[in-house]
Amino acid sequence: MRSGGCAVQQALTVEAAGVVKQAVVLAKRRGHAQVTPLHVANTMLATSSGLFRVACLESHSHPLQCKALELCFNVALNRLPASSSNPMLAPPHSQHPSISNALVAAFKRAQAHQRRGSIENQQQPLLAVKIELEQLIISILDDPSVSRVMREAGFSSTQVKNNVEKAVSLELCSQSSPPQKNNSKENSLLTLQPSSSPPTTQNERKTRNPSEIPIRMRM
């Protein structure tokens, strides 16, 4: 990526930056001059256990529906114009595709949304706010080209966004809930301790069964 792309990467968390890097590789492999929200969405959908794919599966549980979505994204990527220069003949610094205006707008939406959602982020400058992966997904789904592909495959971008937000909320609730005290170890220690029986009195020793008294043999 060019200098603008490096600045964008600095505004992303490690996980979100990894997705963008894969999208850049995808655009370069297809010979596209720019990285668009379609590249990012296709990259996130390709991750089988990723949040984006899981949110799509919650909307349509059948895996073939996600396969249809992958095909629709593939068709949309095929429609994008290819780079005019030959990657084999171009200088090394120009081989990397640039970030499209639509993707830059998606980054700005994600930053603004994340800044509004946290008091700590509101006290920081906008450029200092790191974009989390879930905010990147929600912002990418707001892109018109991505929403159109989702609609063609029978998905609702709004529903998928709600699934993403729900998953994030559940994760935050599980992290903030206090851990329950586990007394099983303490109880097991109590059961393992030998019970202290009261000492045997002299009267009890006298009333024992004679058969229990040991017989001493004289030699």
UniProtKB/TrEMBL annotation:
Residues 188-202 have a biased composition (Low complexity). Signal peptide: none annotated. Residues 8-171 form the Clp R domain. Residues 173-187 have a biased composition (Polar residues). Gene3D superfamilies: Clp, N-terminal domain. Keywords: Repeat. It comes from the Eukaryota. It holds the Pfam family Clp_N. Residues 173-219 are annotated as: Disordered. This is Protein SMAX1-LIKE 3. It comes from Sesamum calycinum.
